[in-house]
Amino acid sequence: xxxxxxxxxxxxxxxxxxxxxxxxxxxxxxxxxxxxxxxxxxxxxxxxxxxxxxxxxxxxxxxxxxxxxxxxxxxxxxxxxxxxxxxxxxxxxxxxxxxxxxxxxxxxxxxxxxxxxxxxxxxxxxxxxxxxxxxxxxxxxxxxxxxxxxxxxxxxxxxxxxxxxxxxxxxxxxxxxxxxxxxxxxxxxxxxxxxxxxxxxxxxxxxxxxxxxxxxxxxxxxxxxxxxxxxxxxxxxxxxxxxxxxxxxxxxxxxxxxxxxxxxxxxxxxxxxxxxxxxxxxxxxxxxxxxxxxxxxxxxxxxxxxxxxxxxxxxxxxxxxxxxxxxxxxxxxxxxxxxxxxxxxxxxxxxxxxxxxxxxxxxxxxxxxxxxxxxxxxxxxxxxxxxxxxxxxxxxxxxxxxxxxxxxxxxxxxxxxxxxxxxxxxxxxxxxxxxxxxxxxxxxxxxxxxxxxxxxxxxxxxxxxxxxxxxxxxxxxxxxxxxxxxxxxxxxxxxxxxxxxxxxxxxxxxxxxxxxxxxxxxxxxxxxxxxxxxxxxxxxxxxxxxxxxxxxxxxxxxxxxxxxxxxxxxxxxxxxxxxxxxxxxxxxxxxxxxxxxxxxxxxxxxxxxxxxxxxxxx
Length: 618
Ligand code: PEP
Ligand code: MG
What we know:
The chain is α/β, with parallel strands linked by helices. The protein has 3 domains: about 5-30 and about 155-240, Phosphohistidine domain (Glucose Oxidase, domain 1, 3-Layer(bba) Sandwich), CATH 3.50.30.10; about 40-145, PtsI, HPr-binding domain (Enzyme I, Chain A, domain 2, Orthogonal Bundle); about 270-590, TIM Barrel, CATH 3.20.20.60. The protein is about 45% helix and about 15% strand. The protein has 22 helices and 17 strands. A 9-stranded mixed beta sheet has the order 2-6-5-4-3-7-8-1-17. It has an 8-stranded parallel beta barrel with strand order 9-10-11-12-13-14-15-16, surrounded by 6 helices. Strand 4, helix 6 and strand 5 form a beta-alpha-beta unit. Helix 2 crosses helix 5 and helix 10 (about 315-330) runs parallel beside helix 12 (about 370-385). The model is unreliable at about 590-615 (pLDDT under 50). The chain binds phosphoenolpyruvate (PEP) and magnesium ion. The site of magnesium ion has 5 residues, from helix 16.
């Protein structure tokens, strides 16, 4: 028998790492359930009740184990599902319908679920929309339980399993974190979807956005998930397996080398110190930040604390989270960003407002200044928590001078109110702003004297500069971090900050790209903040380069006309001048030769400029 041909599919690299393994196909049944007639409705009600009790118990157990392993924010996902399973009004309605209509429980449960989901789908509220996934999850458990089928869980997968599915729910990905050497490939999902962010946060290699490919693959197929480059390889040839084994080996060796850098400072060969900090989304990431050897937290995105809830956290809840992070970080600085609600993040928190263009809408500081009651709870929790460590407050999405002054005034009010309650606060708590709107960069000379630091948010700065939605599937080729306009804005930010002797950080994804890191240092940035997985890599880069060399490279790049020209120059020049970091670049940088979303289909009738073909070897 001849071996099947190797097939290479290109998707979105959602979470780095390589898994050489065997598929486990995972399909949620999307077909309507058949309305079977039951002979004994009372018995059906009894069976339904015990199914619900079983599911509730299983979800509560899951909540507890996730709570222990990952903390409260992730546990809330299962808690929300347990609450749906325990919904008495819903369950009594099903029981009543079983008695009246003499139909099977799973049909009626699914029928009710579809009605609720149809309503939720009309909602503009992202919190409510996320509940759709929870309802699907509970319904599929109930159907399986009523039919005596085993509930498929991702919790007990064998080593080296690659889950292939149309989509995975956050709960599935969490359950996978209990296994070893697991990865997944899904048809849908964007790079900033919950699935992608969770996979990254939990260290599960993943390729997403593969269209119809994953769901068509049965369990038991040999595959490779290359989460660095977004490659998904079906039936890899012996040569490909050998190549990837080699990559894994080299990766382990690099990991060992990077581990040795943990306690070493990030200083260039000619003596310039660069702060390498970490971005966190959840308080329980702090231990990983510390063990990665970061010199502080450069961005704590507080809005992720509110995953799966529709109200704002109380003062006590926020105080607990902020003080916990500050205490654990000890004498290392912690930059906590005030709420950046809206845009791509938790639009539901702002009520049922419909915005045709949320990225240009009522988000971040605009929302907070309009809702001072909400803002002040957060600011007071931050100020009080500042006694537990080295807090620095970061304000997102400043687009004009007045917003900064108004924010500073509110912070002073909060301080005065706390001090009136005899809460003693440190005299100076540094306040910085994110430079992520081009208008703010253009008036950076006016803003710099009013702040203690700048932090450049390149994710947004790029999208607002080149007018490309950062999540737009078809336009990712235009979302260019090396666009000469982006470089000029970064240069202008540094110039304004230098004039007032204020430090400049970069906390957007650009800081996590090794080529860009060299460029940013050369442009005069003092601090890079990226996910803790990048800490060792960034330290290695800083310790391998010279500041003078990076400056020379940056100044040449600033004179170039196109993204492509700059990128290719950086690739070649950095490899030539700093050969020590070529391996690091290879393992931590998405191959830019691979368009980001090759398999994503354009809407019907429109040819996507990036919708690629699969390539077949063999
Ligand atoms: C940014 O815009 O670069 C940033 C760090 O903020 P966020 O990605 O949370 O919008
Ligand atoms: Mg931003």
